[in-house]
Write a structure and sequence with these properties.
Blueprint lengths: L2 H14 L12 H8 L3 H13 L3 E4 L3 E4 L9 E5 L12 E12 L1 H6 L6 E11 L2 E11 L17 H9 L7 E9 L4 H7 L6 E9 L5 E10 L4 E5 L1
Antiparallel strand pairs: 1-2, 3-10, 4-5, 5-6, 6-9, 7-8, 8-9
Organism: Gemella haemolysans ATCC 10379
InterPro entries: Bact_HTH_transcr_reg (IPR050679), Chorismate_lyase_/UTRA_dom_sf (IPR028978), Tscrpt_reg_HTH_GntR (IPR000524), UTRA (IPR011663), WH-like_DNA-bd_sf (IPR036388), WH_DNA-bd_sf (IPR036390)
GO molecular function: DNA binding; DNA-binding transcription factor activity
Length: 234
């Protein structure tokens, strides 16, 4: 185990055992350097990893604070699309592909923990009847999808099905992580499809993982608030 990982585990243990309580200020970068005898680079990485994992939040000019978190607590989560509140049962779902291309983007590759590589980008609008309720963009390293045909737009309407049949990768059976927040400033190019009246949206960043921990895809999803709810039970 690397030094920064040992420090992270030690701080997480202190949070879990109540040495650092919810809302309390955590070690500063300087304190981490002094307590654990590490460089500034390592101290910064520790804080970044703890923030990314949801254990802390940071306030510019004030420091890092312990988050109220459900990390490592066993809960049952149910996602609902709430369609029954707005549509008749006879109304069907479908997707429209608005973009399919091969791109290179360093920032997106960093999300996938890759060096700069070619990625498949597929953007879709999801409809229930004639109402657009979600905008989803998938980014997948081309190395996992050899010979993919970006001209066959119809095959991307059901992207997961195409990947399962052609590449024998079942996305829905792989582990994933999803970060969610509510936004009121949905990007205009997205809002024009799913939030024309200025409705708030849920914004998701989802990662799908292979069994060895490598990231298969990064997905950006926007859902109109009317068509999503989340139930958490412990």
């Amino acid at each position: 185990m690397k030094k920064y990982e040992k420090i992270i585990n030690d701080i997480i243990l202190k949070i879990q055992t109540g040495i650092f309580k919810e809302g309390e200020q955590l070690y500063t970068e300087k304190e981490i350097k002094e307590i654990y005898n590490v460089s500034s680079t390592t101290a910064v990485r520790v804080l970044n990893e703890l923030e990314s994992a949801g254990y802390i939040f940071r306030i510019q000019g004030k420091g890092s604070f312990v988050n109220k978190t459900l990390v490592n607590k066993k809960v049952f989560v149910t996602e609902n699309n709430n369609f029954h509140k707005h549509f008749k049962e006879s109304v069907s779902e479908h997707s429209e592909v608005v973009e399919a291309e091969i791109i290179q983007d360093k920032e997106l590759c960093s999300k996938l923990k890759l060096k700069n590589q070619k990625l498949l980008k597929v953007a879709r609008i999801k409809y229930i009847g004639n109402v657009a309720w979600a905008h989803q963009t998938n980014y997948i390293p081309i190395k996992y999808l050899p010979d993919v045909n970006i001209d066959d737009m119809d095959s991307f309407k059901e992207l997961a099905t195409m990947i399962r049949k052609k590449y024998r990768i079942d996305i829905h059976q792989e582990k994933s992580k999803k970060n969610m927040k509510v936004i009121v400033d949905t990007p205009e190019e997205i809002a024009n499809f799913i939030a024309k009246d200025g409705d708030p949206c849920f914004e998701f960043d989802r990662y799908t993982y292979f069994a060895d921990g490598k990231i298969f895809e990064y997905v950006k999803i926007f859902i109109n608030y009317k068509y999503y709810s989340l139930t958490i039970k412990d």
